[in-house]
Each structure stands twice: as C-alpha cells, then as structure tokens.
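## retry 2 of 3
previous attempt timed out at serialization; input unchanged, resubmitting
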Amino acid sequence: MATTKDAFPPGGTWFDTLPKSFADVPIDTSNDNAIPTSDFLEASESLTTLFDLLGSIAFTPVKSDMLGNIKKVRDRQLAAPDVSSTLQSLVVNELKTKKHTATEGLLWLVRGLDFTATALRHNQTDASAELSTSFRTAYGSTLKPHHSFMVKPIFSAAMSATPYKKDFYAKMSKEEDEGKVREQMGRWLDGLEEKLKVLGQFMASKQAQW
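## retry succeeded, writing output
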C-alpha cells in the first residue's frame, strides 16, 4: 500500500490510497451490530501504513504488533470460514472449541486501534497539541494499563519519536492541504470509533470471555 506522497493521486491524501476505510465497514444493526470480518481486517491493515508516515523505526513494533493480531484473527477466519463471517461469530465459535488465539488477537487489535483513534482524535480536538502529546496521552489511557514493564519502554520510545504536527500533516497530503486531511480524518475517525464502541462492548461481554 502507498505510504509516500509520490503515490498519492493528484490533489489526494493518504486516505485516498486506503483499500478499505473504516467509514465503509458496515454494522448490521439487525444482527446484534455484527461487523464483517473481512471488511474490518482490511480496514485495519490499511491503517497500519499510517505508522510508516510517522517516519520513525520506533513505530515498527507498534505496526508489527497490530499486523500480528490481524493475522491471528484472519487465520481463524480461514480455518473456519462458515462461522467467521462476522467478528462476533468468529469469537463465539472459536471459544466453543476451548481455544482463544483469535479472540485474544482481536482484543489486542481493538486496543491498538483504540490507541490510534484516541491519539488522532485528541490531535483533531486540541489544535495546539503536538503529536507526541496526543500519542503519549492516548497511550496512557488505552494500551499502557495492559502492557508489561518490558513492553512499556518500547511503546514509550515510539511516542517520543513522533514528528512535529505540521510535518505529519504535510506528509498526509500530496498538496500539503491540512484542511483536506483533517476533513477526511474526521470521517475516517467517526467510522473507526463507531466500530470500536461496538467491539469494546462485545469484548467485555460474557460471550467473549475465556
């Protein structure tokens, strides 16, 4: 997937290169807010190229962690496609087998996505905040409480390696149009946060416990 401005369409942004946006991942309200597994995983994979734009090898572990959790969920989907069309059915049916590899992977994927969404929403809302502040604040309220003392320094290093906000937004747009980036990011975040709310409630329910 494209992660450099050279690959952006004329007048386009990073969002225009995404194979799947969270804004386009449906929620089936007639079926207990079921979320299609394939669509969600594709949108999640698309998101991981954002860490390349942050421009530091310090974010490599963050990206690798997210991709690893995507793989755990997809492996289960491929192994049992008939009962894995939605994330919720995938979890319920995996737990019936007394295994929880994909379920745990989804839990950590949701946490990683929540961290990313919280950081970017903070930066959208607080115009004066630098990215490092937004990511550090988000880490403290999302992933940090769940990380071991060995993992925390790795992620903390990434938080400190974020570029200046003006440089980040310039990388996000072919024409360095921050206004357009913020507008598209707002729609994308709305879609992501909507799915995270549904999945957060589901993963905390008895159905998703092992």
